[in-house]
Amino acid sequence: MKDLLFMLADLWMIFAGFYYGWQFIRRYGNYLLGLEWMVVATSGSNFLLWALLSGDEDNPLYNIAYFFDAFSRSVGITLILVLGLMAVTHRYKPPVVVDVAAFALAAGAGLYLQQFRGPELHIGPATFYVVVNALTTLFLASFSWRLWKIGARGHAAVTALATAAAATIAITYDFFPLPGTTSTGRSSTRPRWPPGDSRCACTSSPTACCTTTTRRRVPDPP
User: pTM of the predicted model, to two decimals?
Assistant: First the structure.
């Protein structure tokens, strides 16, 4: 059931990312928000394909998932989001060079930060993710308050709740992962393999199977 709910949430994220991303571009000319929403949808599509086709760490889609994860956590759903929303809060219309530079920075950050993976804590990147999320949270708190003051209280409440959830995830994702689970929320116990298989981490009798319970970090969609 948990895997089914996860898949449905991912499918909804893919639809929302592509549909509303296109709406941001077509109706408002906001390429920053539009393209970032599509990046998130593409990330979700890649992750879904990886999970359905193999779920193997050697699959190229696995590395691509880490790239998209780092892309959005570092610059996409932080700097690009803020610049895009400033079109509403400050009537800011960035020139094309700013759009291109923002996505180039995000791509560079994604390529560099995707290497920091595995069960161990990478204190530098983890701290960076929390700091940029905290700064984004301050802006979104102000954005929610602006919505509340103009009477859009439903949107303000939803924005505030989503921001609080995102901030909680950003803090706990690296520093306080849930015990006994990977970052996908699945049990950390890996599938059973025959003894002698290189994927098996213990020695057993020829007829027995063994398991490993080491925690694996698997990238999530934004």
Answer: 0.77
pLDDT at 72: 95
3-state DSSP of 113-168: HCCCCCCCCCHHHHHHHHHHHHHHHHHHHHHHHHHHHCCCHHHHHHHHHHHHHHHH
For the cut 60, the answer to whether the pLDDT of residue 208 exceeds it is: no
The CB-based long-range contact list for 51-58 (8 Å cut-off, 24+ gap) reads 51/7
Query: How far apart, in Å, do the first and last CA atoms of the chain sit?
Result: 22
Beta-ladder partners of 193:
210
Question: Identity (one letter) of the amino acid at 55?
Answer: G
According to DSSP, residue 39 is labeled H
CB 188 within 8 A of CB 182: yes
